[in-house]
Specification:
With 201 residues, the chain is mostly helical. It has a single domain, classed as Protein Binding, DinI Protein, Chain A. Helices cover 71% and strands 5% of the residues. The protein is built from six helices and two strands; from the N terminus they run H-H-E-H-H-H-E-H. A two-stranded parallel ribbon has the order 1-2. Helix 3 runs parallel beside helix 6 and helix 4 packs antiparallel against helix 5.
Length: 201
C-alpha cells in the first residue's frame, strides 16, 4: 500500500474558504486593485517537495511491505501444511482427518482476519498521518495569511481543480514548501539531538 497523492491532495484545501465561494468579479477587482488577497498553492508540487510528507510516505511504504512479507510467509507456511495433510490424509483415521481439517480451517480464518486487520491498521495510520500533514499546512497558511493579509488560499491540482487559470504571481507554493521544510528540518535536528543525549545517559 502506498500513501495516495490523490488522497493527500484532496486534504490540502486550507484557510478561509473554498473555490466554490470565489466569484470571478472578486478576483478581478482584487487584482485590479493591486492586492493579492487571494492566492493559491499547487498541492502536487507541495507534496512532491515537502520533506515531512516524503518521510511519512517512505515509512508507511516500508511498513506495508514488511507486513505484506510477513503475511506472505505465513500464507506459504499454511499452504505447505495443507499439502502435507493432503499427502498424509490416506493414512489417517477419520477422526484424525476431521481434526486436522478443523485446525486448518481455523488457521485459514485467522490468516484472513490478520490480513484484514493489517490492512485496516495501515489505512488508519495513513489517515492519521494525512491529518497531521493537513494540520501542519493549515497552521502555517493561517499564520502566513495573517502576516500577508490573504483572505483566501486556494489549492490547485492539475486536472482536478476549480482554478482553470491562475497568475503565477499568486502562486505561493514555493514559499510554503520552503517554510514547512525549514520547520521540519528544525524538528528533525532537535529530535536527533535528544536521541544523542539519551544515548549518553
Amino acid at each position: 500500500m502506498t500513501l495516495g497523492l490523490a488522497t493527500a491532495s484532496a486534504m490540502m484545501m486550507a484557510c478561509s474558504g473554498s473555490p466554490d465561494t470565489v466569484k470571478p468579479q472578486d478576483v478581478a477587482s482584487e487584482s485590479a486593485a493591486g492586492t493579492s488577497e487571494i492566492v493559491y498553492v499547487n498541492s502536487d508540487s507541495l507534496l512532491a517537495n515537502y520533506e515531512y510528507f516524503k518521510d511519512v510516505r517512505t515509512r508507511l511504504q516500508t511498513k506495508a511491505e514488511q507486513k505484506e512479507k510477513d503475511l506472505r510467509t505465513q500464507a506459504e507456511s499454511f499452504q505447505k501444511e495443507v499439502q502435507r495433510f493432503q499427502q498424509n490424509a490416506a493414512g489417517m483415521t477419520q477422526q484424525q482427518a476431521q481434526a486436522t481439517e478443523q485446525r486448518l480451517m481455523q488457521k485459514q480464518q485467522q490468516l484472513q482476519a490478520l490480513q484484514q486487520s493489517s490492512g485496516n491498521e495501515l489505512m488508519t495510520e495513513e489517515s492519521e498521518e494525512m491529518k497531521k500533514i493537513y494540520d501542519r499546512v493549515e497552521e502555517y497558511l493561517k499564520q502566513l495569511s495573517q502576516e500577508e493579509g490573504y483572505k483566501m488560499v486556494l489549492t490547485y491540482q492539475r486536472g482536478n481543480s476549480a482554478i482553470l487559470y491562475g497568475d503565477s504571481t499568486l502562486d505561493i507554493t514555493e514559499r510554503v514548501v520552503s517554510a514547512l521544510n525549514k520547520t521540519y528540518e528544525g524538528e528533525k535536528a532537535e529530535a536527533d539531538k535528544q536521541k544523542e543525549e539519551e544515548k549518553k545517559k
